[in-house]
What we know:
heterodimer, A: 311 residues, mainly alpha, 2 domains, two-stranded antiparallel sheet, 14 helices, 75% helix, disordered N terminus, B: 427 residues, alpha/beta, Rossmann fold, seven-stranded mixed β-sheet, five-stranded parallel β-sheet, 16 helices, globular
Amino acid sequence: MFSALAPARTWVGARVFFEEELEMWVVYTLNALYFAALLFLTSLGLNIILGVMGILNLAHGSLYAIGAFMAAWTIIAIGMNVPTFFLFISLLSGFVLAGIVGFLMEKSLIRFMYKRTLEYQLLLTFGALLLLEDIIKMIWGGQAYYASAPFDLLGKVDILGHIYPIYFLFVMFITCLAGLFIWFFMGRTKLGIMLRAISLDREMATGLGLDIGRLSTFAFVLGSGLAGLAGALVVPTTPALLGIGMEPLILAFIVVVVGGLGSLKGALVGSLLVGFTRSFGIAIFPEIELPLLFLIAGIILVVKPEGLFGR
Amino acid sequence: MGATAMTAGTFGTASKAIGQAKKPIPTTPVKIAAVSFLTGAAAAPFGIPGDNTYKMCADVINKEGGILGRKIDLQSKDEAGGVDAQVKLCRKLILEDKVDVVLGYISSASCLAVLPLSDELGGLIVAYDCGTHELMEGAKSPYEVPKFKLGFRSKAHLGIDNIGLALYIKKYYPKTKKVAGINPDYAWGRDSWLIFEVAMKKLMPQVEVVKTLWPPLGNTDYTAHISALMGAGPDIVHSSLWGGDAVTFSKQAIGMGFFKKIRMAYSRGEPYPQEVGKDYPEGQIICCAGTHYFLFSPKDKASADLQKWFVGEYHKRYGKYPTYPCYHAYQAIYAYKYAVEKATKAVGGWPTIDEIAKAMTGLTFPTPSGPLTIREDHNGIEDCLVGITKLTPKYPFPILDKMEVFSAAKVNPPVGTKTVDWINSWK
């Protein structure tokens, strides 16, 4: 079914798209931007941790899941009897709890891995992934948490004749704020410059007297919190379930590979590339949308192994 | 009044046989393992309601004296963990725990892996909720039945849902010109779409398929799929999305104005209006995986009385109306009970596993959704109910309007014929 008909269907899909579905490009673009926004937030945290600390954190998806569960639980606990504003503030609970878990992880596990090779990191962070999934199951049980109040409350808007949920625009706005904050923080503040110094040359930074231990903890907490924020932002649109962090983790890795290690610009471009490929891919050639994504990542790796904006 | 007491007049109990028992009836409890998803995505919509029903039925049967005087020792087990874990669990249940019967499995993958163990280990296994039509079918028509001597499925396969939808669309929406599909990218989704597409081509050959989408299981963002479907402009979109996926799709689709232009046809959408609430869109075509719907009243009195009791009792205990997995769980545990009682009548005492299997073959018994028959291919056959969602002041979620029941003969292939071959043979 797939192999024999896929090329023919792809060609027909492309023709039909340009002849009949082009008017939908506005929505496809908005969808791409929304998906890219969520991906950018997730990969940003992964990138900071990888760039500053050299740690490939496989448990990043679990931190995303913790953010999702925490936000869902808070939204349900708050209920609808409080001013709307509090419902949106409650999304920050995902950022806070994931940050706290990140802090504990760094202090108890990650700090012993800085001088070890990649294999040790992968084993340890994979173990942390399994552990965190079980902790989530222990705390929140196995059931789904539906917390769509923020999504429902914001309603819809008409954009060039297309109905679009305002919540998706809200997610894009929050992501822009977070991106600008990280850009300003890393480029303009003393703390950010110190973190970049560590990512450039850990030995030299140590020699200059920087407190590597505390700065690393800070970077890990920030990266974890961003994963939690991404999970929290997604939960009004989909139930919090065990394993919710797996797909974002895989896509965030693609973004980091494509965009380049430790690059903010790379994370942005990588997220947009994945977002647009997915949105237009599903519309034009749904049978090969996912393989195409991996093909693009593969080509970039071959042509530019360090990623589009990597060092 | 319990479920068994109500049907005793129609189907009889084995009390007479007990008095003449040649083989002794053990005094120990009957060990029944009930395997459903108790954690993960399938727990809330299917596993927990199914497990609740097993507990409710075991409780009722025990209060009425058990099965031939033997109390049920129900052991709830989790289906999570993948196919390998389920194979290990089933081996343990049969070989170490020595359960009398394993009732279980929601995932088609679990059923395909576990049912062959019935004959290998000599244990009775009754699949209760999984849908794949491949489970009991052979490689090509005609095929020999039964596929497993000790393996059964106490319900119909997914053919009824998708054939039922096609028949409904032909009857109520004969002007349909374009259809599309969005189904999860694994056996369940692919099989569901295959049967629907083949049936539609046969029933409404003029209809064009304009888009088929295969999102991965557990997808959290359907915006691209929703827009792609809206861009393709189908009249009706077929879907077998389930659990959190079905709810996520509905929520995001409502937000994007999808339902103003397009009608969905869900192969097993019955649980979701109750799950989503009043926001669930009206006018959507929904199949009930049989005639499993809390507002449906079967024609025969025994089943109609049972339905009234079942809906009331479940709602009293769990605060919700029973959904189709609840009915499936009822069918599985009572299939075992009735088979044991039927076999006891024949052999005069507590039957062996082979004798229970023999009694279960061809067994017909009342259920809250109507009489159920387990055929010689060890698969249940059922009528199929399809309707359209409509909000009423009486319920806080849309209920089904324009309910249409397609008879078992119209939606189940004959014994020994593959479903696709049967549809293709329609005149």
